[in-house]
Amino acid sequence: GGGAVYGTAAWPLAPGSPAGWYLYSNGLRACRGGGAIHLLAGGNVLLDGTLKANAQPGAQDYGGTGASGGAILLVGRRLTGSGLLQANGSLNRGRTNADGGGGRIAIWVGMPLQTAETRVASGYYSGVFVEDYPHFGGDMQALRASEAADDGTIEVYAISGSLIMLR
User: Fold this and answer.
1) How far apart are CA 107 and CA 60, in angstroms?
2) For residue 125, which of 30, 51, 60, 111 sits 20 to 30 Å off, Cα-Cα?
3) What are the φ/ψ torsions at residue 47 (nearest 5 degrees)?
4) Residue 129 parent element (H or E)
């Protein structure tokens, strides 16, 4: 079977899991899971480029499994732009049917930088799921490598509670 998705959709801090190991005559080989990107901004985030936390693809004759996608946590007042966020799992191209699951992407808007830093340090999170976020015109992907694995998650949240700003 394929890789199951793990971790918290709202607060993805962990990188993706590596592939299973397979012994070749010249040693053990496994493809790497996706990394973890934590971008905490004190203001607006304009993303016109690419942020990738994809798993490394398996070698053609690899006999292990695919690796899972990583994590992208992006926190700022607002996310705009037309860029790409990716946390895709990798396909095993060898003899087994254990492809990597998708990673996790969470965007938090309206959260002050100090609050974000405190929450990352403590692992605490609470917020309101945003059904439709119109400000970002780019693309987000957290795809599984095949039907044998689970899709990742892509979610946008706003900080919960009251926020009063005095100037």
Assistant:
1) 35
2) 51
3) -115, 105
4) strand 127-129
